[in-house]
Amino acid sequence: MAADLPLLTGDDPRAALSAAAAARGLRTASGRALRFVAADDAPAGIAYEAHIAATGRVPTRLDAHDLLNALVWLALPSSKARLNALQAAGIARHGVGARRGPLRDAATLLDENGVLLVTDDAEMALLLRERRWHELFIARRLRWSAVRALVCGHALMAKLAAPYKAITGHALLVALPAATAVSEVDAHLAAGLDDGLNPSVLMPLPVLGIPGWCAANADPAFYDDGAVFRAARGASAGSPRG
User: In the chain, where are the structural domains located?
Assistant: First the structure.
């Protein structure tokens, strides 16, 4: 994604972003050519995700949130197209209501706040799911070399521009070796996204706890902050650290 940052230069980067999408042949799941357009492109009463699915046109404001979303489309086009298709199908079935339902809730969380944990180390994923923070980040710190954390949520990216300790992403395990190319991660993830997607598969992850993501976490006391590194429900705050 860093390679695409120069596309954001200029007064209106949407043309450059659209040109990059066209050069790469990017399309929605329904085969519509992907383009980044003015924020008011969608007709009144048409849901954002439904409009993208039907036209390939992504309404994009000239702010960090929407421009980062465009960069994620370029980096993970198959996964973004699949998430959009799931959202659009949910809207077609149930309309746009106050409650989205578990599928659309999970798709939104992943799209806005997601972190892909690319690893074939199943124990690390288990420790995260059980929120065994000291085992995960201290006792097994060196094993993070077998984990690649890819931020895919554009709202989470925007937060990381001005980082603070409590920033928490929603992590999804991608069971591949950490060195797997991003294009292969994208294809693998897209193939696994289906109507069974729900919030329970996403794991809270305070991202500044990831080794190397901030200098302060080199001190084990960084992880003693229970307001950020919260215990799992039913677990004792004083559970063994491993």
Answer: 2-98, 112-224
